[in-house]
Amino acid sequence: MKKINILSVVLLFSLITVTGQTNKPNIIILLVDDAGYADFGFAGSKDLKTPNLDRLAANGVVFTDAHVSASVCGPSRAGIMTGRYQQRFGFECNPPRDFTGISLDETTIGEAMQQVGYKTAAFGKWHLGDQPEYRPNVRGFDYYWGFLSGGRSYFSNKKNDREGESHSIRENDVFTTFEGYLTDRLGDKAVEFIGGNKDHPFFMYWAPNAVHTPMEASKEDLALFEDHPRQTLAAMTWALDRAVGNIVSKLEEENLLNNTLIFFLSDNGGAHNNASINLPLKGFKGNKYEGGHRVQFFMHWPKEINKGTYTGLSSALDIYATSIAATGEVAHPNKPLDGVNLIPYLKNEKQGAPHQQLFWRKDHEAAMRDAEHKLIRVSELGYRLYDLENNLGEDRDLCEVNNKQLQTMQSELKNWEKGLMIPLWTEGDTWDTITWMIHEDLYLNNKVRVKDIKQLKNWKQKKISK
Fold first, then answer.
1. Using one digit for the tens of pLDDT, what is the confidence trace for 36-59?
2. Residue 114 sits in the same domain as residue 254
């Protein structure tokens, strides 16, 4: 009798353990780089092909009013990684080379997922700290394969691939090399990780540099889009979608897809120099108009979330809180989160939008949302106020006709700024000038005069010659 009881206890314990592992979802963040708002099939693109992403979006929840917390790469990623406005810990601007990274006082999403028993991995672009104490393996990730800097070539080369170079590929902080096209290799590495961790809940941060410059694609993919007006971008996007498809196929093969929570988004709006399209939005990467920070965003979790569209004001900051909540466990970030758990809103357990307000600031420019209203502030240029419900293109300023709303939002923006740090670094006078001029032109609904350093030099030379 005692033997039967002992055996029953062992079997019961085994069943609970297996059930617990099965019920906990795997969680994957698919974070692409500088993608245009209109540049996916599910977003209406007719010329860029993304069948795998389209299938995920069609079976998930697509958010129509979702935003990242910055319009440039580094700060946006810092917000996703901490679930907090990155301005709270000084990571406000894109970082220079050899910089300090996310404050060591912050608990990253990787560290939080480790707290609740997940295996963690990061792939691709890091851009959150070059120095040893800020690298992925000591900031919450059991495994890392990628590069520390903000960009690099998609092919191995002598310039990028040198030991000690922040652009080089590292595997768990050990220099390594790769063959072929980087986006494909990042997909392969993710597939390997899934295969090796299929029996244990895992968290994956998959952050390829596609479709960030340099504009490089394989000969085979370029051949598929011969005579395409955006040939290189189309080929790069095709490779990106292929890598996502391989990841999803592996999840299906291991019978994991149904209970894997997948987030998909871009780190900011499409850039001016990669042929991306942000229509119908105004602006692009690096500015406070919608084209800079409103992104395509969807969640895919068939086991728990019905497919559809969600219109509430949402933020990439919400990924952290949502991921922890999905595990059913309690993590202990040592700072209060600015993001919220999205799941109750998608299940109609909570009414209203996840956020009434969202805020942005980078050096001399700031912005905020208050429901349908959008406020932009630029040093020496003053304010612009827009009603996005009726003017998504942000070309009709309401500062004079709705002065009460203007004053309310000015006050709210200043109150938010009281909880922020002075930026630990800035992007320098040259980029400050470029960014300021871009905002001046967008304020006036004019064609943007300069978008990069070369164009600024040419503009100055023409001005002097006159």
1. 999 999 999 999 999 999 999 999
2. yes
